[in-house]
Amino acid sequence: MGRIVGIAAAVVIALGCAASSAGTAAAAPTPATIAVTSRPIVALAAAGGVVAYRSHFTDGSGGVCNSVHTLSLGGGGESVPKRCSAGGSNDHGTGLALGPRALYYDSIEVEPENATHDGAEAILWRVGGGAPVKLADENYEITCSGSGIGPFAYAAGVAFTRTVMTEVDPAMECQLGSGGGPGISRMTAATMQYVPSGSTTATPVAGAPGAARIAARWPILAIVPLKLPQPMGDLVAPPTQGTGGIELWNLRTRARRCTANFAGAAAAVATNGVQVGAIVRTPQGTNLARLSTANCVHTGVRLLAGRVPPELAMGRHVVAWVSGRSVMALNFRTHRVSRLFRGALVPHGLALSNGRLVWWITGRAGASRVVRLALP
C-alpha cells in the first residue's frame, strides 16, 4: 500500500482549505464546472465544503481500478489519495464518505487465490491528519466463502457493513482445494460496525442489520437492511438488494430508535438529522417518502414523475433528486417542487454541501465533469 502513503498531507490541504474556498465561490444560476477528468466517474460525495469522487480506469486486459480524488467545493486544493495507472492495483472499490478533515473510502483488490479461484481483499481506509489508516480488512475467496465490506457512511466516525459469504456448493470444491470448478456461494449474514473518530477499532452495533443503503447525520443512522441470504455468483463486491423498510439507530446510545415499512424497497436514502428521505420503487411508480427521525412517522409521500435514478440529497430545508436529465427539489418550508436545472446529460451522484448541489455528468467518450449549483 506504499503508493498511497505520503499523500495524506495533500488530502489535508484539500480538506482544510475547503471552508475558505467554498465561502468565496460565487453563486451561479447555471452549474459551474469544478473538475474535469478524461475517465468516467463512478462515485461522488460532498460535505463540509469538500468534494470527493472516484474515476474509473481499465487497462484493456481486464484490470480495473477506481482512483480517489478530493478538492474543495470552490474547485481548488485537488489531491489524489488513490491513483490508478497501468500495472497498478486491481481495485473495484467505489465507496466514499466525508467527515471534518477526514476522507473514508474502500478498496477491493482482486488477486489470484489459487489455481481456480480469485480472492477479494476489502479494506476501509481513513485519510486525513497523517498517513492513511486501515480501519477494517476483510477477505473473500470469490465464489467460495469469506467476508467483505458493504455500504458505509460518516457519523462522527464511520459506520460500515460487514458481510459474511458462505459456500453452498454441494461438492464443497473450495474446501477440497484441488478439484477446481466454479464454486457456489451466497451472502448469509451482515452486521453494522462502527469506528468513532480518532479510533481505529471497529465494534459491532449490537442488533443492527447490515445495510443495502445507508445514510447518517450524527447521531442518527438510517439503514435499509440487506435482504438475506443473497446469491453471490462471481461478484467481487457484495450485492445490495434491500428489504422494504428502514431502521433508524442512535449511534450515541447504540439503540434502535424506530422502524418504518414501505410498499417497496428503498433505492436511495438520505437524512438531515430531523427527517429521512427515501426513493421507493412500488408497483404504482416511484415515490419520495419522508420520515421523522424521532419516531419513524411518515411526514410525506410524493409520486415522482419521469425516470428517477437512485440519487437523493437532503439539506435542512430541501430534498433533491434526479428526473430524467433534470435536477428537482422539494422545499420543506413552501412545500413546492421546482426544477433546478435541466441539461443535455443525465446527472449522477447527487450530493449537497454548504448550500450547493454537486453532481457529475459523463459524455459519450467517457470524459466526466463535476459541477456545482447554488440552491435558490
Describe this structure in words.
The chain is mostly beta strands. It folds into 3 domains: 1-91 and 347-376, no CATH class; 105-236, no CATH class; 262-310 and 312-346, Thrombin, subunit H (Beta Barrel), CATH 2.40.10. Helix content is 5%, strand content 55%. The protein contains 3 helices and 29 strands. The chain has helices spanning 8-16, 18-24, 173-176, and strands spanning 32-37, 41-47, 50-58, 64-72, 79-82, 96-99, 102-112, 118-127, 133-141, 146-154, 157-167, 185-196, 203-209, 211-217, 220-225, 230-231, 245-250, 255-261, 266-271, 275-282, 285-292, 298-304, 312-314, 318-323, 326-331, 337-342, 348-353, 356-362, 368-374. Strands 10, 11, 12, 13 and 16 form a 5-stranded antiparallel β-sheet that branches. Strands 1-29-28-27 form a 4-stranded antiparallel β-sheet, with no helix packed on it. Strand 3 and strand 4 form a beta hairpin. The protein is globular. It starts with 7 loop residues before the first helix and ends with a strand. Mean pLDDT is 89; it is low at 1-28.
Write a concise synopsis of the structure shown.
With 376 residues, the chain is mainly beta.
Topology:
Layout: H1 8-16, H2 18-24, E1 32-37, E2 41-47, E3 50-58, E4 64-72, E5 79-82, E6 96-99, E7 102-112, E8 118-127, E9 133-141, E10 146-154, E11 157-167, H3 173-176, E12 185-196, E13 203-209, E14 211-217, E15 220-225, E16 230-231, E17 245-250, E18 255-261, E19 266-271, E20 275-282, E21 285-292, E22 298-304, E23 312-314, E24 318-323, E25 326-331, E26 337-342, E27 348-353, E28 356-362, E29 368-374
Antiparallel strand pairs: 1-29, 2-3, 3-4, 4-5, 6-7, 7-8, 8-9, 10-11, 11-12, 12-13, 12-16, 14-15, 15-17, 17-18, 19-20, 20-21, 21-22, 23-24, 24-25, 25-26, 27-28, 28-29
